[in-house]
Automatic annotation (TrEMBL):
Protein name, UniProt field: BPI/LBP family protein At1g04970
Residue ranges occupied by any Lipid-binding serum glycoprotein C-terminal domain in the UniProt entry: 281-480
InterPro entries the record matches: BPI/LBP, BPI/LBP_pln, Lipid-bd_serum_glycop_C, Lipid-bd_serum_glycop_N
Residue stretches making up the Lipid-binding serum glycoprotein N-terminal domain: 37-263
Pfam families: LBP_BPI_CETP (PF01273), LBP_BPI_CETP_C (PF02886)
Leader sequence residues: 1-28
Amino acid sequence: MGLSSKLMVPTTLFIVLSLSLTITHVQSNGEGFISVQIFEKGLDFAKDLLIDKAVSSIIPLQLPDIEKTVKIRLIGKVHILLSNITINQVDIASSYVSTGESGIVLVASGATANLSMRWQYSYTTWLIPIAITDKGDASVQVEGMVVGLTANLENQEGKLKLHLLECGCHVKDISIKLDGGASWLYQGVVDAFEAKIASAVESSISNKIREGIIKLDSLLQSLPEHIPVYSIAVLNVTFVDNPVLSNSSIEFDINGLVTSKDAVLVSNHNHKGWKGSFSCSSLAKMVQISLQDDVFNSASFVYFDEDYMHWIVDKVPDQSLLNTSGWRYIAPQLYKQYPNDDMNLNISVSSPPIIKVAKDDIDAIINLDLTIYVIDAGQVIPVACISLEISTSSSAEIMGNNLAGSIRLKDFTTYLKWSEIGDLQIHLLQPVMSTLIKTALLPYVNLHLRRGIPLPLPHGFTLQNAEIVCTCSRAIVCSDLSLPGQYHLSSSHFATTKHSNVT
Ligand SMILES: *[C@@H]1O[C@H](CO)[C@@H](O)[C@H](O)[C@H]1NC(C)=O
Ligand SMILES: *[C@@H]1O[C@H](CO)[C@@H](O)[C@H](O)[C@H]1NC(C)=O
Ligand SMILES: *[C@@H]1O[C@H](CO)[C@@H](O)[C@H](O)[C@H]1NC(C)=O
Ligand SMILES: *[C@@H]1O[C@H](CO)[C@@H](O)[C@H](O)[C@H]1NC(C)=O
Ligand SMILES: *[C@@H]1O[C@H](CO)[C@@H](O)[C@H](O)[C@H]1NC(C)=O
Ligand SMILES: *[C@@H]1O[C@H](CO)[C@@H](O)[C@H](O)[C@H]1NC(C)=O
């Protein structure tokens, strides 16, 4: 036997917002060299992930037992106990997220939930003084549930702190179906317990949201302050200033400079305010990550400082360039003095390469000394040193989650720094230098540049359909994100179906 009824809990308009707190709205003081902006599409993505994760972590949710003595006509006082009340499934019909100066508002509405429980009763009458008892199962369907929260993000000593300002759950309809039991019992349960079940659902879900926010907050607290840039350097991803919440995006500024792994030093980068006007066409992509050229320069500085910019070249595609016979016509004195000897080149960058992001281009100036060695009878003899100033342009590309690039030769100048073999004709050297730059130096540098600088993304997320725009002094990555592991979040053992639509 199954009876069912619906009770309309008076639908008070669910008010999520109460702006009792004034949020200090601190404008960036321009300390951050990387800025990350999450647009509406990204906020929706994050919201769907959060809801998905929240639902799977909430269910199955056990509510406290409900017990009550109910007076039922013709029967008298009946003691009823509802136990093992469990929410087994939650479906969310629609949800939305909005941001503003007041914080982040997330509302899921039209949610339904299925509950199961056990009922049992006992009573005695003056006629039959022995206790009469019975028990069975029941299922409860909750409909029109609205769940909402308002939270705010704040910078607390370089970490993001998530504050829950407001949170609530409101149940609109509830219907109970008993398996077994008498119709008088059914009416008793419906009359006496509907409101209690509804409020138990409301408070349990609100509590779960509070717990969830605490977990999310500790997740934010556990975000690293540094991301390793290979083995020698780190990218400082400490948050700078409070996140700026506008009506369609959240913007985070992070320090964004690369420092050597052990250094405590903060390079004094000249920072000019740069709240520029450029923005990825904000509806199209989830996030925008802007890197000022100081980021690249800080990396360049560290690699230079850590002595990573010296190379001994003893192999080139045209190996005759590393034999004095190949220099016979360029530097006759060299050939004369060391005929048919092998040569080595010591390429040594002499100051940190300077990187400038320009419109549609990233330019770099590399100053280096190229020392020519001759290997004569097993002895390595330095014979001349040529200084080069190389100007390159580069195109940026995304490799995994890294911003990588490759440089091309634009131009270079040479002068002879010193020579043990007399004066060298610089104009004769130019073609050889050009060949060496193109075939030995740049491929080697590009091999390293292809690894790139890691972009500050939370663990597990990957860029998708990223585009790079270079403007005056900033490289901007506009991208969608995906979370390849997200299917684990909604693994089927939660016995749940979830979907949410953006409204
Ligand atoms: C409580 O309910 C859950 C879910 O319906 C069920 O798996 C479990 O066996 C029940 N426990 C008891 C003691 O009835
Ligand atoms: C939840 O309730 C709905 C409507 O009564 C039903 O279609 C659905 O199968 C139920 N799900 C579970 C897991 O009981
Ligand atoms: C968001 O703010 C901008 C200007 O700050 C305004 O033009 C726009 O209409 C606002 N959008 C919404 C949905 O409020
Ligand atoms: C990282 O950035 C923060 C914020 O700008 C700064 O206070 C801190 O000193 C930096 N850490 C290092 C090692 O440079
Ligand atoms: C340098 O080149 C000459 C001519 O090609 C060759 O005979 C000689 O063996 C080379 N020297 C070495 C060390 O390979
Ligand atoms: C290469 O040249 C640089 C500077 O010209 C020098 O400091 C370095 O010791 C040289 N390396 C080798 C292996 O000779």
